[in-house]
Amino acid sequence: MRSTLSHIIDSWTTALDDYSLAQLCMKPSPGKWSLGQVYFHLIKNTEYYIEQAKICLLANENSQEVCTPSAASIFANNSFPDEIIEGPDTNVDIRQPENKEQLKKALLELKKEIEKLVTDISTNTYKGKTKHPGLGYFSACDWLQFTEIHFRHHLRQKQRIDDFLGK
Asked: What one-character-per-residue DSSP string does 112-152 give?
């Protein structure tokens, strides 16, 4: 998982070189996110997922709890359904980036945190779980898998924005 998730974060980081700041801030239509806002969404949510995974490593709390059937399907398929998903952040006004370096720095920090987390998981004996707001209980490993799935899911949105930008 480490190499796949690191590779995905690297690809999102490298992709930033293909855009000007103006392009990153351009919305395809009112009420839709710009690519810069997608990046902030990914960063913010991944920070949350990492914190949840860290909590799982502190104790065996909720270890007998399970995820919802829809989460089980997501994990089994290692993917969200191929559809536009309305989530808690859908209508949130996420800020625009100030510059590309801000996004690159945040992605690099996430990558470092994830690499440390993978090491911590491999040496940890606790099997705790924390509750995802809509999908039931996840273990630390589940949170990492969900992070990867989430990044890949937004590649579809990135492609729609790229089409709008003529990329």
From this structure: HHHHHHHHHHHH-----EEEETTTEEEEHHHHHHHHHHHHH
